[in-house]
User: Fold this.
Amino acid sequence: MGSACSAALAPAPQHEPLPGLGSSLPAFPDPLHADPQLQRFLDAAVAQLCQWWSGSGQRSPLPLLSVLPELAPPIEGQPPQALLADLQLVMDGAFNPSHPGALAHLDPPPLAAAVAAELVAAGLNNNLLAEELSPSLTRLERGLCAWMATALGLGDQAGGVAASGGSLSNLMALVVARHRAGLAGDASAVVLCSADAHVSLGKALMVMGLPASALWPLPVDAAGALSIPALEQALERAHAEGRPVLAVVATAGTTVRGAVDLIAPLAALCRPRGIWLHVDGAIGAVFALSEAHRQRVPDLGLADSLTVNPQKLLGIPKSSSLLLLRDPGLLARCFATGLPYMEPSWADAHGGECGLQGTRPAEVLKLWLGLRQLGRSGIDAVLEGAITRRQRLQHLLEPLPLSLQGGPLHLLPFCPEGLDASGADRWSTSTRQRLLEQQLMLSRPLYAGRHHLKAVLGNPHTGEAELQRLRSVVEASLP
Ligand SMILES: Cc1ncc(COP(=O)(O)O)c(C=O)c1O
Assistant:
Protein backbone atom coordinates (compact mmCIF):
# COMPACT_ATOMS: atom_id res chain seq x y z
CA MET A 1 0.00 0.00 0.00
CA GLY A 2 0.49 3.23 1.46
CA SER A 3 3.93 3.93 0.28
CA ALA A 4 3.18 2.08 -2.95
CA CYS A 5 -0.08 3.94 -3.55
CA SER A 6 0.50 6.93 -5.79
CA ALA A 7 -1.82 9.33 -7.53
CA ALA A 8 -1.83 10.63 -11.07
CA LEU A 9 -4.15 12.46 -13.41
CA ALA A 10 -5.42 10.41 -16.34
CA PRO A 11 -5.11 11.74 -19.90
CA ALA A 12 -8.54 12.62 -21.33
CA PRO A 13 -9.71 9.32 -22.87
CA GLN A 14 -11.63 8.92 -26.14
CA HIS A 15 -14.96 7.23 -25.51
CA GLU A 16 -16.72 4.98 -27.93
CA PRO A 17 -20.49 5.10 -27.41
CA LEU A 18 -21.56 2.01 -25.48
CA PRO A 19 -24.43 0.18 -27.16
CA GLY A 20 -27.80 1.40 -25.88
CA LEU A 21 -26.39 4.15 -23.71
CA GLY A 22 -26.95 6.94 -26.21
CA SER A 23 -24.83 10.00 -26.66
CA SER A 24 -26.45 12.28 -24.11
CA LEU A 25 -28.23 12.08 -20.81
CA PRO A 26 -31.22 14.16 -19.73
CA ALA A 27 -30.03 16.57 -17.05
CA PHE A 28 -33.03 15.91 -14.79
CA PRO A 29 -35.55 13.04 -14.66
CA ASP A 30 -38.61 13.70 -16.84
CA PRO A 31 -41.62 14.36 -14.57
CA LEU A 32 -44.14 13.09 -17.12
CA HIS A 33 -42.56 10.22 -19.02
CA ALA A 34 -40.53 7.17 -18.28
CA ASP A 35 -37.09 7.77 -19.70
CA PRO A 36 -35.44 4.60 -21.04
CA GLN A 37 -32.16 6.45 -21.58
CA LEU A 38 -31.97 7.50 -17.94
CA GLN A 39 -32.85 3.99 -16.83
CA ARG A 40 -30.15 2.47 -19.03
CA PHE A 41 -27.63 4.88 -17.56
CA LEU A 42 -28.57 3.98 -14.00
CA ASP A 43 -28.57 0.28 -14.94
CA ALA A 44 -25.08 0.66 -16.41
CA ALA A 45 -23.81 2.46 -13.29
CA VAL A 46 -25.25 -0.28 -11.08
CA ALA A 47 -23.73 -2.96 -13.34
CA GLN A 48 -20.37 -1.22 -13.03
CA LEU A 49 -20.67 -1.22 -9.24
CA CYS A 50 -21.67 -4.89 -9.18
CA GLN A 51 -18.63 -5.67 -11.33
CA TRP A 52 -16.43 -3.72 -8.92
CA TRP A 53 -17.78 -5.78 -6.04
CA SER A 54 -17.44 -9.09 -7.84
CA GLY A 55 -13.81 -8.34 -8.68
CA SER A 56 -12.94 -7.14 -5.20
CA GLY A 57 -11.45 -10.48 -4.12
CA GLN A 58 -8.96 -10.27 -7.03
CA ARG A 59 -7.76 -6.77 -6.16
CA SER A 60 -5.84 -5.84 -3.03
CA PRO A 61 -7.52 -4.05 -0.10
CA LEU A 62 -5.60 -0.92 -1.12
CA PRO A 63 -5.09 -0.01 -4.78
CA LEU A 64 -1.49 0.22 -5.94
CA LEU A 65 -2.21 3.19 -8.17
CA SER A 66 -4.89 5.83 -7.90
CA VAL A 67 -5.53 7.69 -11.16
CA LEU A 68 -7.86 10.64 -11.00
CA PRO A 69 -9.96 11.72 -13.98
CA GLU A 70 -10.26 15.36 -15.10
CA LEU A 71 -11.51 17.39 -12.16
CA ALA A 72 -13.10 20.58 -13.49
CA PRO A 73 -16.38 20.52 -15.44
CA PRO A 74 -15.70 20.72 -19.19
CA ILE A 75 -17.27 23.42 -21.39
CA GLU A 76 -19.70 20.90 -22.86
CA GLY A 77 -21.33 18.27 -20.66
CA GLN A 78 -19.93 14.76 -20.96
CA PRO A 79 -21.80 11.86 -22.63
CA PRO A 80 -22.94 8.93 -20.47
CA GLN A 81 -20.11 6.60 -21.43
CA ALA A 82 -17.51 9.23 -20.53
CA LEU A 83 -19.16 9.76 -17.16
CA LEU A 84 -19.08 6.05 -16.45
CA ALA A 85 -15.46 5.77 -17.56
CA ASP A 86 -14.47 8.63 -15.26
CA LEU A 87 -16.42 7.00 -12.45
CA GLN A 88 -14.52 3.76 -13.11
CA LEU A 89 -11.18 5.53 -12.63
CA VAL A 90 -12.24 6.74 -9.19
CA MET A 91 -13.61 3.28 -8.36
CA ASP A 92 -10.30 1.69 -9.40
CA GLY A 93 -8.47 3.89 -6.90
CA ALA A 94 -10.87 3.27 -4.03
CA PHE A 95 -10.23 1.39 -0.78
CA ASN A 96 -11.69 -2.09 -1.20
CA PRO A 97 -13.65 -3.04 1.96
CA SER A 98 -15.05 -6.25 0.41
CA HIS A 99 -11.60 -7.85 0.09
CA PRO A 100 -11.43 -10.67 2.66
CA GLY A 101 -8.11 -9.26 3.89
CA ALA A 102 -9.51 -5.80 4.66
CA LEU A 103 -9.07 -5.94 8.44
CA ALA A 104 -7.69 -2.53 9.30
CA HIS A 105 -10.57 -0.35 10.37
CA LEU A 106 -14.22 -0.18 11.31
CA ASP A 107 -15.27 -0.02 7.67
CA PRO A 108 -16.98 -3.25 6.59
CA PRO A 109 -18.46 -4.06 3.17
CA PRO A 110 -21.83 -2.41 2.50
CA LEU A 111 -25.17 -4.16 2.91
CA ALA A 112 -26.92 -4.70 -0.42
CA ALA A 113 -30.34 -3.30 0.51
CA ALA A 114 -28.75 -0.30 2.17
CA VAL A 115 -26.91 0.49 -1.06
CA ALA A 116 -30.21 0.43 -2.96
CA ALA A 117 -31.76 2.67 -0.31
CA GLU A 118 -28.88 5.13 -0.69
CA LEU A 119 -29.49 5.35 -4.42
CA VAL A 120 -33.20 5.87 -3.86
CA ALA A 121 -32.53 8.48 -1.15
CA ALA A 122 -30.42 10.44 -3.62
CA GLY A 123 -33.19 10.12 -6.20
CA LEU A 124 -35.86 11.31 -3.78
CA ASN A 125 -33.63 14.22 -2.75
CA ASN A 126 -35.74 14.90 0.33
CA ASN A 127 -34.44 17.04 3.14
CA LEU A 128 -34.60 15.93 6.77
CA LEU A 129 -34.47 19.55 7.79
CA ALA A 130 -38.23 19.85 7.93
CA GLU A 131 -41.30 17.70 7.59
CA GLU A 132 -42.73 19.32 4.47
CA LEU A 133 -39.46 18.47 2.72
CA SER A 134 -39.44 14.83 3.88
CA PRO A 135 -42.87 13.76 5.19
CA SER A 136 -42.43 10.00 5.18
CA LEU A 137 -38.70 10.07 5.87
CA THR A 138 -39.06 12.33 8.89
CA ARG A 139 -41.52 9.91 10.45
CA LEU A 140 -39.28 7.01 9.51
CA GLU A 141 -36.32 8.66 11.24
CA ARG A 142 -38.26 9.50 14.37
CA GLY A 143 -39.74 6.02 14.55
CA LEU A 144 -36.51 4.18 13.87
CA CYS A 145 -34.57 6.23 16.43
CA ALA A 146 -37.28 5.46 18.99
CA TRP A 147 -37.15 1.77 18.11
CA MET A 148 -33.36 1.66 18.33
CA ALA A 149 -33.25 3.60 21.60
CA THR A 150 -35.80 1.28 23.18
CA ALA A 151 -34.07 -1.81 21.79
CA LEU A 152 -30.81 -0.63 23.37
CA GLY A 153 -32.51 -0.24 26.74
CA LEU A 154 -33.11 3.51 27.01
CA GLY A 155 -36.79 3.08 27.80
CA ASP A 156 -40.21 3.54 26.19
CA GLN A 157 -39.99 7.30 25.86
CA ALA A 158 -36.53 7.30 24.32
CA GLY A 159 -35.65 8.51 20.86
CA GLY A 160 -33.12 10.57 19.02
CA VAL A 161 -31.82 11.87 15.75
CA ALA A 162 -29.52 10.75 12.96
CA ALA A 163 -26.24 12.61 12.64
CA SER A 164 -23.53 12.41 10.01
CA GLY A 165 -20.98 10.43 12.02
CA GLY A 166 -20.12 9.55 15.58
CA SER A 167 -18.05 12.69 16.13
CA LEU A 168 -21.13 14.79 15.49
CA SER A 169 -23.30 12.58 17.72
CA ASN A 170 -20.77 12.95 20.55
CA LEU A 171 -20.58 16.72 20.07
CA MET A 172 -24.35 17.08 20.12
CA ALA A 173 -24.58 14.92 23.24
CA LEU A 174 -22.16 17.18 25.08
CA VAL A 175 -23.97 20.32 23.93
CA VAL A 176 -27.25 18.86 25.26
CA ALA A 177 -25.55 17.88 28.53
CA ARG A 178 -24.21 21.39 28.95
CA HIS A 179 -27.56 22.94 28.15
CA ARG A 180 -29.36 20.75 30.64
CA ALA A 181 -26.82 21.55 33.34
CA GLY A 182 -27.14 25.27 32.63
CA LEU A 183 -23.40 25.49 32.03
CA ALA A 184 -23.38 27.28 28.65
CA GLY A 185 -20.75 29.98 28.82
CA ASP A 186 -19.06 28.47 31.89
CA ALA A 187 -15.43 27.95 30.87
CA SER A 188 -14.65 26.17 34.13
CA ALA A 189 -16.79 23.12 33.27
CA VAL A 190 -15.02 19.80 32.72
CA VAL A 191 -15.76 16.54 30.90
CA LEU A 192 -14.45 13.29 32.39
CA CYS A 193 -13.65 10.28 30.25
CA SER A 194 -11.02 7.56 30.00
CA ALA A 195 -7.63 8.13 28.39
CA ASP A 196 -8.75 5.65 25.73
CA ALA A 197 -11.89 7.62 24.76
CA HIS A 198 -12.19 8.80 21.18
CA VAL A 199 -10.45 11.95 19.96
CA SER A 200 -13.80 13.39 18.88
CA LEU A 201 -14.40 14.45 22.50
CA GLY A 202 -11.45 16.84 22.38
CA LYS A 203 -12.75 18.19 19.09
CA ALA A 204 -16.20 18.64 20.59
CA LEU A 205 -14.83 20.74 23.45
CA MET A 206 -12.91 22.86 20.97
CA VAL A 207 -16.11 23.56 19.03
CA MET A 208 -17.91 24.29 22.30
CA GLY A 209 -15.38 26.99 23.13
CA LEU A 210 -13.85 25.08 26.03
CA PRO A 211 -10.09 24.83 26.55
CA ALA A 212 -8.37 21.51 25.88
CA SER A 213 -7.76 21.31 29.62
CA ALA A 214 -11.53 20.94 30.13
CA LEU A 215 -11.18 17.31 29.08
CA TRP A 216 -9.91 15.16 31.93
CA PRO A 217 -8.70 11.86 30.47
CA LEU A 218 -8.53 9.38 33.34
CA PRO A 219 -6.51 6.15 33.66
CA VAL A 220 -7.88 2.83 32.48
CA ASP A 221 -7.69 -0.49 34.28
CA ALA A 222 -5.92 -3.57 32.94
CA ALA A 223 -8.88 -4.36 30.70
CA GLY A 224 -8.83 -0.88 29.15
CA ALA A 225 -11.96 0.30 31.00
CA LEU A 226 -12.18 3.66 32.76
CA SER A 227 -10.89 3.15 36.30
CA ILE A 228 -13.73 3.65 38.77
CA PRO A 229 -11.46 4.77 41.65
CA ALA A 230 -9.83 7.25 39.26
CA LEU A 231 -13.26 8.65 38.38
CA GLU A 232 -14.20 8.91 42.06
CA GLN A 233 -11.03 10.86 42.73
CA ALA A 234 -11.57 13.11 39.71
CA LEU A 235 -15.12 13.90 40.87
CA GLU A 236 -13.79 14.80 44.31
CA ARG A 237 -11.06 16.93 42.77
CA ALA A 238 -13.52 18.76 40.50
CA HIS A 239 -15.74 19.42 43.50
CA ALA A 240 -12.82 20.66 45.61
CA GLU A 241 -11.69 22.97 42.80
CA GLY A 242 -15.21 24.27 42.18
CA ARG A 243 -15.20 22.90 38.60
CA PRO A 244 -18.69 21.82 37.50
CA VAL A 245 -18.76 18.47 35.69
CA LEU A 246 -20.57 18.90 32.38
CA ALA A 247 -20.65 15.19 31.66
CA VAL A 248 -18.99 11.88 32.26
CA VAL A 249 -18.38 10.04 28.99
CA ALA A 250 -18.16 6.27 29.09
CA THR A 251 -17.02 4.34 26.03
CA ALA A 252 -18.66 1.11 24.96
CA GLY A 253 -15.99 -0.13 22.60
CA THR A 254 -12.78 1.91 22.64
CA THR A 255 -11.20 2.64 19.30
CA VAL A 256 -7.99 0.66 19.72
CA ARG A 257 -8.87 -2.15 22.13
CA GLY A 258 -12.64 -2.42 21.92
CA ALA A 259 -12.73 -2.13 25.71
CA VAL A 260 -16.06 -1.43 27.39
CA ASP A 261 -16.33 0.90 30.37
CA LEU A 262 -18.37 -0.34 33.35
CA ILE A 263 -21.56 1.65 32.88
CA ALA A 264 -23.38 0.62 36.07
CA PRO A 265 -20.78 1.90 38.57
CA LEU A 266 -20.31 5.02 36.45
CA ALA A 267 -24.06 5.67 36.50
CA ALA A 268 -24.09 5.07 40.25
CA LEU A 269 -21.52 7.84 40.64
CA CYS A 270 -23.22 10.24 38.20
CA ARG A 271 -26.90 9.89 39.20
CA PRO A 272 -26.71 11.15 42.82
CA ARG A 273 -24.59 14.09 41.68
CA GLY A 274 -26.96 14.99 38.83
CA ILE A 275 -24.14 14.51 36.29
CA TRP A 276 -24.99 13.63 32.70
CA LEU A 277 -23.72 10.22 31.59
CA HIS A 278 -23.04 10.00 27.87
CA VAL A 279 -22.06 6.62 26.46
CA ASP A 280 -20.02 6.65 23.27
CA GLY A 281 -21.20 3.34 21.86
CA ALA A 282 -20.10 4.18 18.32
CA ILE A 283 -18.38 0.80 18.10
CA GLY A 284 -20.03 -1.40 20.69
CA ALA A 285 -23.66 -0.34 21.15
CA VAL A 286 -24.92 -2.50 18.26
CA PHE A 287 -23.99 -5.62 20.25
CA ALA A 288 -26.89 -4.81 22.58
CA LEU A 289 -29.27 -5.55 19.68
CA SER A 290 -28.48 -9.23 20.08
CA GLU A 291 -29.72 -11.33 22.96
CA ALA A 292 -26.63 -13.50 22.59
CA HIS A 293 -24.14 -10.62 22.75
CA ARG A 294 -25.85 -8.00 24.92
CA GLN A 295 -23.69 -8.90 27.91
CA ARG A 296 -20.63 -7.61 26.04
CA VAL A 297 -21.95 -4.05 26.50
CA PRO A 298 -24.07 -4.23 29.66
CA ASP A 299 -26.24 -1.45 31.10
CA LEU A 300 -26.32 0.90 28.11
CA GLY A 301 -29.84 1.81 29.25
CA LEU A 302 -28.38 3.67 32.23
CA ALA A 303 -26.99 6.35 29.92
CA ASP A 304 -28.63 9.73 29.50
CA SER A 305 -27.42 9.77 25.91
CA LEU A 306 -25.87 7.18 23.66
CA THR A 307 -23.98 7.34 20.37
CA VAL A 308 -24.42 4.35 18.07
CA ASN A 309 -22.76 3.98 14.65
CA PRO A 310 -24.36 1.23 12.56
CA GLN A 311 -21.80 2.11 9.84
CA LYS A 312 -18.98 0.54 11.85
CA LEU A 313 -20.04 -3.10 11.91
CA LEU A 314 -23.50 -3.62 10.45
CA GLY A 315 -22.53 -2.53 6.94
CA ILE A 316 -24.77 0.51 6.66
CA PRO A 317 -22.97 2.73 4.12
CA LYS A 318 -21.38 5.83 5.59
CA SER A 319 -22.39 7.82 7.24
CA SER A 320 -24.78 6.21 9.69
CA SER A 321 -24.80 7.38 13.29
CA LEU A 322 -27.57 8.00 15.77
CA LEU A 323 -27.63 10.10 18.91
CA LEU A 324 -30.18 8.53 21.26
CA LEU A 325 -31.53 10.01 24.49
CA ARG A 326 -33.77 8.81 27.26
CA ASP A 327 -35.54 12.17 26.94
CA PRO A 328 -35.39 13.05 23.23
CA GLY A 329 -37.38 16.25 23.81
CA LEU A 330 -34.15 17.73 25.17
CA LEU A 331 -32.74 17.87 21.65
CA ALA A 332 -35.16 20.53 20.44
CA ARG A 333 -35.09 22.31 23.79
CA CYS A 334 -31.35 22.64 23.33
CA PHE A 335 -30.95 23.26 19.60
CA ALA A 336 -34.16 24.84 18.31
CA THR A 337 -33.66 28.38 17.09
CA GLY A 338 -36.86 28.54 15.05
CA LEU A 339 -37.21 27.97 11.32
CA PRO A 340 -39.14 31.10 10.28
CA TYR A 341 -39.13 30.08 6.61
CA MET A 342 -40.86 26.72 7.30
CA GLU A 343 -44.37 25.63 8.17
CA PRO A 344 -44.52 24.54 11.82
CA SER A 345 -43.67 20.95 12.68
CA TRP A 346 -46.59 18.52 12.72
CA ALA A 347 -45.10 16.78 15.73
CA ASP A 348 -42.68 17.95 18.38
CA ALA A 349 -39.96 19.54 16.31
CA HIS A 350 -38.44 19.54 12.83
CA GLY A 351 -35.42 17.28 12.40
CA GLY A 352 -33.28 20.31 11.64
CA GLU A 353 -34.18 21.72 15.05
CA CYS A 354 -33.01 18.59 16.88
CA GLY A 355 -29.30 18.93 16.31
CA LEU A 356 -26.53 20.94 14.73
CA GLN A 357 -27.22 20.04 11.12
CA GLY A 358 -29.86 21.95 9.15
CA THR A 359 -30.25 20.32 5.76
CA ARG A 360 -29.75 16.60 6.30
CA PRO A 361 -29.66 13.62 3.93
CA ALA A 362 -32.06 10.75 4.40
CA GLU A 363 -29.48 8.57 6.14
CA VAL A 364 -32.28 6.79 7.92
CA LEU A 365 -33.47 5.11 4.71
CA LYS A 366 -30.39 2.92 4.27
CA LEU A 367 -30.32 2.11 7.99
CA TRP A 368 -33.96 1.10 8.02
CA LEU A 369 -33.82 -0.99 4.82
CA GLY A 370 -30.48 -2.53 5.75
CA LEU A 371 -31.79 -3.67 9.13
CA ARG A 372 -34.98 -4.95 7.48
CA GLN A 373 -32.87 -6.96 5.06
CA LEU A 374 -30.81 -8.50 7.86
CA GLY A 375 -33.67 -9.09 10.26
CA ARG A 376 -32.95 -9.88 13.89
CA SER A 377 -31.32 -13.17 12.91
CA GLY A 378 -29.12 -11.47 10.32
CA ILE A 379 -28.00 -8.88 12.87
CA ASP A 380 -27.17 -11.70 15.27
CA ALA A 381 -25.20 -13.47 12.54
CA VAL A 382 -23.12 -10.38 11.71
CA LEU A 383 -22.25 -9.86 15.38
CA GLU A 384 -21.62 -13.54 16.00
CA GLY A 385 -19.37 -13.79 12.93
CA ALA A 386 -17.27 -10.83 14.06
CA ILE A 387 -16.81 -12.22 17.57
CA THR A 388 -16.05 -15.73 16.30
CA ARG A 389 -13.34 -14.41 13.96
CA ARG A 390 -11.79 -12.35 16.77
CA GLN A 391 -11.78 -15.37 19.07
CA ARG A 392 -10.25 -17.54 16.35
CA LEU A 393 -7.49 -15.02 15.60
CA GLN A 394 -6.82 -14.62 19.31
CA HIS A 395 -6.54 -18.39 19.61
CA LEU A 396 -4.06 -18.49 16.71
CA LEU A 397 -1.92 -15.67 18.12
CA GLU A 398 -1.99 -16.69 21.78
CA PRO A 399 0.94 -19.16 21.55
CA LEU A 400 3.18 -16.40 20.13
CA PRO A 401 5.18 -14.04 22.40
CA LEU A 402 2.76 -11.18 21.84
CA SER A 403 0.93 -8.86 24.15
CA LEU A 404 -2.72 -9.18 23.02
CA GLN A 405 -4.82 -6.21 24.09
CA GLY A 406 -8.31 -7.11 22.87
CA GLY A 407 -11.50 -6.58 24.85
CA PRO A 408 -14.87 -8.31 24.57
CA LEU A 409 -15.65 -7.01 21.05
CA HIS A 410 -14.23 -7.75 17.60
CA LEU A 411 -10.99 -5.72 17.79
CA LEU A 412 -7.60 -7.29 18.45
CA PRO A 413 -4.50 -5.09 18.83
CA PHE A 414 -1.19 -6.79 19.48
CA CYS A 415 2.51 -6.08 19.77
CA PRO A 416 5.56 -8.28 20.51
CA GLU A 417 6.37 -8.46 24.19
CA GLY A 418 9.36 -6.51 25.40
CA LEU A 419 9.73 -4.01 22.55
CA ASP A 420 10.39 -0.36 23.34
CA ALA A 421 8.69 2.46 21.44
CA SER A 422 11.14 2.63 18.55
CA GLY A 423 11.33 -1.16 18.28
CA ALA A 424 7.54 -1.33 18.14
CA ASP A 425 7.48 1.40 15.50
CA ARG A 426 9.94 -0.51 13.29
CA TRP A 427 8.26 -3.88 13.86
CA SER A 428 4.75 -2.58 13.15
CA THR A 429 5.82 -0.70 10.01
CA SER A 430 7.65 -3.62 8.45
CA THR A 431 5.08 -6.22 9.50
CA ARG A 432 2.22 -4.14 8.15
CA GLN A 433 4.09 -4.02 4.84
CA ARG A 434 4.64 -7.81 4.85
CA LEU A 435 0.95 -8.28 5.59
CA LEU A 436 -0.06 -5.97 2.75
CA GLU A 437 2.08 -8.02 0.40
CA GLN A 438 -0.08 -10.97 1.50
CA GLN A 439 -3.27 -8.97 0.80
CA LEU A 440 -3.91 -8.43 4.49
CA MET A 441 -4.51 -4.89 5.66
CA LEU A 442 -4.21 -4.14 9.37
CA SER A 443 -3.94 -0.75 11.04
CA ARG A 444 -1.06 0.50 13.15
CA PRO A 445 -2.43 2.46 16.12
CA LEU A 446 -0.22 4.10 18.70
CA TYR A 447 -1.40 2.81 22.07
CA ALA A 448 0.21 3.37 25.50
CA GLY A 449 3.30 4.79 23.84
CA ARG A 450 3.92 1.87 21.47
CA HIS A 451 2.71 1.15 17.96
CA HIS A 452 0.58 -1.96 17.72
CA LEU A 453 -0.96 -3.81 14.83
CA LYS A 454 -4.73 -3.96 15.06
CA ALA A 455 -7.09 -6.39 13.38
CA VAL A 456 -10.77 -5.45 13.17
CA LEU A 457 -12.73 -8.63 12.52
CA GLY A 458 -15.90 -7.08 11.17
CA ASN A 459 -15.45 -8.19 7.57
CA PRO A 460 -17.86 -11.09 6.89
CA HIS A 461 -15.69 -12.29 3.97
CA THR A 462 -12.65 -12.96 6.14
CA GLY A 463 -12.14 -16.69 6.54
CA GLU A 464 -9.77 -19.22 8.06
CA ALA A 465 -7.30 -18.81 5.18
CA GLU A 466 -6.81 -15.11 5.89
CA LEU A 467 -6.48 -15.69 9.64
CA GLN A 468 -3.89 -18.46 9.11
CA ARG A 469 -1.93 -16.25 6.68
CA LEU A 470 -2.02 -13.44 9.22
CA ARG A 471 -0.63 -15.67 11.92
CA SER A 472 2.17 -16.93 9.64
CA VAL A 473 3.30 -13.42 8.71
CA VAL A 474 3.19 -12.27 12.32
CA GLU A 475 5.06 -15.36 13.51
CA ALA A 476 7.77 -14.82 10.90
CA SER A 477 8.08 -11.18 11.98
CA LEU A 478 9.04 -12.04 15.55
CA PRO A 479 12.68 -12.06 16.65
C1 LIG B 1 -15.31 5.06 19.96
C2 LIG B 1 -15.51 6.01 18.83
N1 LIG B 1 -16.32 7.07 19.00
C3 LIG B 1 -16.54 7.96 18.02
C4 LIG B 1 -15.93 7.82 16.79
C5 LIG B 1 -16.15 8.85 15.74
O1 LIG B 1 -17.00 8.36 14.76
P1 LIG B 1 -16.99 9.01 13.30
O2 LIG B 1 -15.69 8.61 12.65
O3 LIG B 1 -18.21 8.39 12.67
O4 LIG B 1 -17.12 10.49 13.43
C6 LIG B 1 -15.07 6.73 16.57
C7 LIG B 1 -14.41 6.54 15.28
O5 LIG B 1 -13.72 5.59 15.03
C8 LIG B 1 -14.84 5.81 17.62
O6 LIG B 1 -14.01 4.78 17.47
Residues 76 and 290 are 53 Å apart (CA to CA).
